[in-house]
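To: structure subgroup
Subject: Chain for Friday's discussion

All,

I'm putting the inputs and outputs inline so they're searchable in the archive.
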Amino acid sequence: MPSTEHSDAPLELTPLTAIAPIDGRYARVTAGLRPIFSEFGLIERRVRVEIAWLRALAEHPDIAEVPPLSAAAQARLEAILSNFGIEQGLRVKAIERTTNHDVKAVEYFLKEQVADQPELAAVAEFIHFACTSEDINNLAHGLMLHDAREQVLLPAMDHLIETLRALAHRHAEQPMLARTHGQPASPTTLGKELANVVQRLRQQRDSLAGVTLLGKMNGAVGNYNAHLVSYPQLDWPAFSQTLVESLGLGFNAYTTQIEPHDCMAELFDALSRFNQIELDLCRDLWSYISIGYFRQKTVAGEVGSSTMPHKVNPIDFENAEGNLGIANALLNHLGAKLAVSRWQRDLSDSTALRNLGVGFAHSLIAIASVQRGLGKLETDAARMAADLDQNWEVLAEAVQTVMRRYGVPEPYEKLKALTRGRRIGAQELASFVEALDIPDEAREALRQLTPARYIGNAAAQARAI
């Protein structure tokens, strides 16, 4: 009989033993986010903010107690930043086990790091001067979101958009039957339908890129209370704004203890909209595969079904759909939660903020899945042509519109009687056209029309995207 005993020793954390798939099954896809959204990434950015604050204090001529730093002192601070790695992060965590406070642990870590440099040791008490933890955290979180957006997310979005744009150009003139309400409708081209997605994704990509991530550095309740008690002559709001903007963030002048996170909600909403458009694409492509408009390239050794050998399932688009749902559930929750805080501050945002990277990660996994799925698609032009040829009734729109132009009575009603709810062929439509009282050139134009040629300016739109 199999043993029912289990070892009490915890499993070593690896991609195989990780609880969350973003660090397990999909670890390769999300690796670029790890240096940013991990706890290490948060600690490293807290260190960056604390050092920037100390340097700014030293540069201000009216803070005599922190004189300008020498080249040697600046080099030491730069070395702390450039050499900050896992060992240093673990030291901060070791200090936190005593302080039970993560930001205070960073302050104590920095004091350790400068203890043997006399110039910096003399001003060590100005590390974290007049700051509340949220002064450091909000800027660190802003930097995390900024770095993830610029370094990882936007490049992935741009790659997906460019892939779709190239497909739109390639298939600009490939006619296909449109379906409104799931029923045959006026034809379009495959390229034009892809161009629609490109345009939608671009708009949300630009919205996301345009969100100004804000930060604050104004003390315990946003009023520079401690700052002004210590140095009442300083223009602390201007000083703070310069510091925040030097980090590449926008300045929020009006806050409580926390920066209110409205910009995060705006960012997450833009990403959620991008994801929703991507999800719409996945479902459409899934449906086009199911009706044969696309075949999927087979991969040697890959299995579609454990019992049905013939199957090539659209798993990449299904995978993306699942990850997009998870991403948006998290992004929508964070956007709603983070913008709400009781009075001047409550701690309910703290644990939520530790999940900033999870929505990004599932979004990134989805983009990678869609890219993979797009790379497997092969257009079945013959299947599209056959579908068009079986639905000549879609030309009823064209015929009745020409009838309207030339004053033929009841054009809509006559075409409705001929076509509604049933299919007609080329001959039936030709017989109808021949009986019309319209100019010969108009009749000849309708004779030449086929479902495959009735595509308006779809090809031009696709080429122009």
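Points worth raising on Friday:
The mean pLDDT is 94.
The domain at 391-464 is CATH 1.10.40.30 (Ribonucleotide Reductase Protein R1; domain 1).

D.
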